[in-house]
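W.,

You were right to be curious about this one. When I first looked at the sequence I had no strong expectations either way, so I just let the prediction run and decided to look at it fresh. Below is the sequence, 287 residues in total, followed by the output.
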Amino acid sequence: MNRNRPGTPWKPKPVPRCDPDRALGSLLGLAVCEALAGSSQTVFPDAPLPCGLFGDGTSMALALAESLTEMAAVDQRDQMIRYASWFRYGHLSATETCAFIDESVRQAIVRFEKTWDPEDHGSEGDVCLARMAPVAIFFYGSPEKALEACAQTTRTTHAGPHSLEACALLTAMIFMSLGGHGKADILRHARHDPGLAQVPPPALDEPDTRFSLAAMSALRMAVESFCAADSFAKGALSCRQYGRRAMAAYGQLAGAWYGAAAIPRPWRESLVKADLLRRMLQGLLEN
């Protein structure tokens, strides 16, 4: 259409809107899977979570969501201030206190408090995988902006190349899941990534000691669990053996693909502060 033709009003192309159920599924999936990973008891899809407390990854994802919503953009210093508030005062935690913090994140926050520099300088780790859902949801209208924002937000605590690559890949897959892409397309995207393909799975009785590949290793386990299962619950229970970071990645990815309604209702209802996740999601969707 010629937008300059007299008498013909020009209408901008509408920005794609994120499906609310898939978006909520990604955030709830993250929190539910962290709660599952934090419990040593046997869990069944038709029973409540033994412990409905989400972990440090979800708290940081909520802090990032809050920052994106209130700043209407990526602001690394604002993000670090909110992470510090969680660390020091339990802001957006499940228990009103920071019950656990990954050492790499603690060091990043302490560095920021001393220098006011919001960017890490090469640290590797896997906890950063837990913060990708808010980025994919907030920047859903543009995959390019989503990946750029992913790099910016990841670099606040983990600027190592393996961590950045793993987070970018997870963001892309969450983005595709939010858009309703078929599982085969999403998995094909993951399998073509050279970084993920070169990471061997860790032995179940011996955690992967190559810390530089921790994020890629956790992501690989999450993707394999997503690939092998035909429901959110089956994949989550299968992925549980690989630890909380693999579970965080799986929860965001599978939650976005299956949607919130597909997460077992007893799990959703026994999750603490589920209303907080819904409020944060509303802010992400309204921007």
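Here's what jumped out at me. Residues 20-286 form a domain with the ADP-ribosylglycohydrolase fold fold (CATH 1.10.4080.10). And, maybe more interesting for your project: The chain has one domain: 20-286.

Coffee later to discuss?

I.
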